Amino acid sequence: MTDIEPIHEFIFTDHALSEMARRQITENDVKAVLAKPEQTEMVREGRAVYQSRLEMGEPPKTYLLRVFVDIDPSPPYVVTVYRTSKIEKYWR
Fold this sequence. Notes:
single chain; alpha+beta; five-stranded mixed β-sheet
């Protein structure tokens, strides 16, 4: 995983907000991952994925929350967000 700086100021795209609502992911969850990611990776020039394991749902289950960010603009744009139970697939 690449060493990418934490993000504290950013803008949600409309797509990210609609996907977060559909997937029941809160802005606070996204902020927590961007501020203190467990892992980061460049997926292409100018776009990074920030990811962390989080307990979500009832009963709580561990998921990997993946946040895709266009890091070149200032402030960066959160492009999309999703969670997955297939942690081992994406964990490096």
